[in-house]
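Input set for joint prediction.
Command: fold jointly, output tokens.
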Amino acid sequence: MSTGRTSRPLTAWAFLAPYAVAVALLIALPALLNLGYAFTDHTGLTRDPRFTGLANVRRLLADDFLVDSVRASAIHVALAVPLRLLAAIGLGLLLAAPRPGGRWFRVAVYLPTVVPDVALAVLFLWVLNPLYGPLNQLLGLVGHPGMNWLAEPGSARVAVALMLAFPIGEGFIVVLAARRMLDGRLYEAAALEGCGPIGQLRRLTLPLLAPVLVLLAVRDTILTLQVNFVPAYVLTDGRPANATLYLPVYIFDQVFEFSGFAYGAMITSVLMVVTGVIITALLLMVRRWRVLR
Amino acid sequence: MAEQGVIRLESLTKSYGKVVALDGVDLAVRAGEMVTLVGPSGSGKSTILRLIAGLDRPDRGRVVVDGQDVARVPPHRRAVAMVFQDYALYPHLTVRGNLLFGLRVRRVRRAEAEDRARAAADRLGIADLLDRYPDETSGGQRQRIALARALLREPTVYLLDEPLASLDAPLRFATRADLLTLHRELGTTTIHVTHDQAEAMTLGDRVVVLDHGRVRQIGPPQQVYDEPADTFVAGFLGSPPMNLVPGGGVLGGGTDLTLGVRPEDLRLDPDGPVATTVEAVEALGSEAILLTRCDDGTRLTVRTGPRPGVWPGDQVRLRADPGRIHRFDADTGRRR
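tokens >
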């Protein structure tokens, strides 16, 4: 027993080692390098980088495009995360119960997640087309003249969020699996006490799924801040009026189009800070609302 | 008030897919009575509870509560409270939250709800657990929480689905007595499901023996034990089960009969008519069980006092109490 107890931490570390090495080499080290580059004049093309002190910070503070970019990212998170969570949770709970043909609906919900980002974005160029796109035709059915989706700042933001409301497969699967693990007897007990479907959702399903939902919210926030690059690049290229110039898009522009490698590193650090702030706010909210035990 | 809680089941039939869970069950439960449903797993005991509670609908037949057919009455409008086998406590709520759940759903005023929850908790001796979560309580405590929750429904009928099955043996013994006391105090009709012999014998005014969705016998426990209606009941109730000898064999009798004798109605007697060989002796402390085998292969179980003084391999002779030999029809298994 005693030998087992002393060797156990070593065994654990041995198993963790490959992952720890990968994290150190592929994530921690580049992150640190990135932070270092942020205080240089590195272009990624020419001579060795030179330390420039706070020059990039001064540039950052005077950068109007960055303000637009942070705003675009924040609005995008506020639009896309609730939309995606609502879709994943709603569909997950709806399709968790076994019913005839249910598997085809589940496949249909997961399918957009399998489609490559670029393909989905190209598809959405067609969906959103103001002349022959199906979305405007649908709006036409209810008497709406349709929108020039990607030409107005507001509707362009909505359009990108709308597209990202479809690849929700992972969240959907997690909700589906978590709901199926809940004990059916609890629902019978609640039904005996007079708790209807809405009451069961409010008093049982959502509180019982709370840990999973918080995890999904955190994960989706991080994801949404970062994976909006492809749709924004294909659909709008950051336009109109910088409405979809999300941080990853702006970073890409700086690094690869303006050769501002060092400045891009500085904005990347900003993205990390923004992500950290939003996640912290989310977790504080969770604690305050006492969602988790 | 005294007339509340009368239940009548009329040719109740229920299938789940191809599995027939209940096949024409008739049962009348009097107000204030405690009835035990007993049978092997899959005999339909729990299905009866679910149909009375309204969690499932019968394929045919009626559930009549207090003279009213409740086919169209949703579960929460039936004045029944159910205690599930695994208790079905809400894991995300404290004990207090569990007790208040139904009261909140029914929009009972907060102060009143708190008072009633506390009273129920006091009654079942769980008042000091109110701020704990279910997974911080023991099995016995959970059972009490579930009972307290049922109490707060103020039902006219309690449905208890194997309420003692998850408890360990000593606790089960104590809780059995508590359940009886509670039932006597409340005087509410209670239907209780078990597959445990001892519970079936001790916990009910009447016991209903079920097999394959049919009622085999209904009666006071001792009567069912003394005069089993057929070979199934004879073999099911009692531990170890009754010795059943098709054709009479070593016990004598005709070929159209199956004779039965309970282990306690056989005794060692040097002049007894039945010659047999002891194969095993189970010493249970207060008594001993002899497993024996006759020359024709018939196995007989004998209950004796402790330390019977015989050993595996011994040749012994047995005598059956002639007044306590049960006669069953060899074909139908019915009592004759």
